[in-house]
Amino acid sequence: MDTLRGRLLVATPAIESGPFLRSVVYLLDHDTDGALGVILNRPLESDVDEVLPAWAGLVNAPVCLFEGGPVAMDSALALGIIADNLPPAGWRHMAGRVGLIDLDGPLPGSGELAGLRVFAGYAGWAPDQLEAELAEGAWLVVDARDSDLMSPQPEALWREVLRRQDGDLRFWTTFPDDPSAN
Question: Which residues does 5 contact at the CB level (< 8 Å), separation at least 6?
Fold first, then answer.
């Protein structure tokens, strides 16, 4: 099995409703036990300083919590991008310069992180569930950029990621929000 860890899942119009409608998911883990990721383009109205005030000054704009997915919405996890080769204490490597940050650990020092985002909940798939959804055409798998994780305009990320793809994938950006109104 080839791992998709560190790549993006981009929802296709086959997903017509729910938390994954036009979502962009960064995969943190993918193996024979299943997959785990966070939705990158679902900012919430709650500010980080309301929940984790010590961390608010380290979070990239917009400085709010993000809905990471429908699983365990009452828990938080943070993704960080290291600024150099030396990760801060409490950093667990995921892919490239991206890792999970221990929110119960010490705050990273100045300049240790190039970006930080906090998520409420996560997206999870049981063994072979994601593979079945991929076969059904529910998701596109594309390369992730560090800038995707820290996009200052997360609501535009779905179209932005598709627009940079080669070939016909770019045409998904023209798909109407409500095809029945077309």
Answer: 27, 28, 29, 30, 31, 94, 95
CATH code for residues 7-181: 3.40.1740.10
Distance of CA 147 to the CA centre of its chain: 11
Strands (E), 50-97: 64-67, 71-82, 91-95
Beta strands in 19-70 (DSSP E): 24-31, 34-39, 43-47, 64-67
**How many CB atoms lie under 10 A from the CB of residue 77?**
19
> What Rg, from alpha-carbon coordinates, does the chain have?
16
Burial of 93 per CB tally in 10 Å (0-12, 13-18, 19+): exposed
pLDDT tens, 92-120? 999 999 999 999 999 998 889 999 999 99
Domains in the chain: boundaries: 7-181
What is the spatial distance between Cα 4 and Cα 30, in angstroms, rounded to a whole number?
6
Contact present, 23 and 158 (Cβ < 8 Å): yes
